[in-house]
Amino acid sequence: MPDLRFDQRVCVVTGAGGGLGRSHALELARRGAKVLVNDLGGSLDGTGASTRAAQRVVDEITALGGEAAANYDSVATPRGGQAVIDAALAAFGRVDVLVNNAGILRDKAFHKMDQSMVDAVIDVHLKGAFYVTQPAFRLMREQGYGRIISTSSASGLFGNFGQANYGAAKAGLAGLTRVLAIEGAGHGIKANAIAPIAATRMTEDLLGELASRVTPETVSPIVAYLAHEDCAVNGNVYSVAGGRVARIVMVETSGVVLPEVTAEAFRDQVNEIEQPGAHGYYEPGSLDAETTIIAKALAEAS
Ligand SMILES: NC(=O)c1ccc[n+]([C@@H]2O[C@H](COP(=O)([O-])OP(=O)(O)OC[C@H]3O[C@@H](n4cnc5c(N)ncnc54)[C@H](O)[C@@H]3O)[C@@H](O)[C@H]2O)c1
Hints:
By secondary structure, the protein is an alpha/beta fold. It folds into two domains: about 10-250, NAD(P)-binding Rossmann-like Domain (Rossmann fold, 3-Layer(aba) Sandwich); about 265-300, no CATH class. It is built from nine helices and eight strands. Helix 1 links the parallel strand 1 and strand 2. The radius of gyration is 21 Å and the shape is globular. The mean pLDDT is about 95. The structure holds nicotinamide-adenine-dinucleotide. Nicotinamide-adenine-dinucleotide binds near residues 17, 103 and 104.
């Protein structure tokens, strides 16, 4: 099988001035892509800005013989999101791949979290993905081709203390990915997400011995596959860390149909509802599929 190449493809990577985004940008460029390296260049909590981070990665790519352009807009406003995509168009004339990667942290126990912590984190991760993806998605629909990879997190999909803002935003990105996969399917667009764990400034001091194994470079090849024309999956979320890759799925138990819908009937069956049940777990591919499962269960019970 030939290597996965990106010659003539234009890839936009947000937050690509360091950490995972830098690694994704280098991996895609190494495979022949023209890369728009976006980064606001601020600190981990989202304050400050600098052109240095993005420019440094562009210089790295260029030094390796690749092609890249820098952009310093924040993804956290509609104007910024449009400017990121416009910069890719100005530099390279098209957009084939978008990697939503930009992110910040403002951790705090929920009862102490103030509004600015909620707004800043949701603005960058979740709304930021909307702001950049929408102009990109419109172009992709027109050209009948596109790949979108968003960065979710185990924090949102499984839960993590002190990250209500971040977890909610990251779970939202998994939801956005599902909908984009459905809306893009008829237009040659595929949308998938990763929930990575990697040693970056975001996880400094958190990973212990794992840090040396879970480098960003062990995540980017999976992003490259999801970004490629040959990508055979759509709407999936992958746990990716240190070479271990798993699919994270949203499933439901077989459930029960309550003979009488009362709080007491639910109490009496709550344990049974938690079990996989006769059909095992269902994995509805969409709201329509879920509605069909419900209609069938109700019909069978009546
Ligand atoms: N490192 C991990 O273990 C881990 C785990 C789960 C998810 N993630 C996610 O992976 C992504 C990359 O994180 P990382 O670990 O490489 O951290 P990082 O801090 O090194 O990278 C994030 C980058 O995003 C940029 N950025 C922040 N706000 C921006 C904005 N408004 N516009 C444009 N750029 C902006 C930052 O300047 C930074 O370079 C994030 O979305 C993060 O939430 C990381």
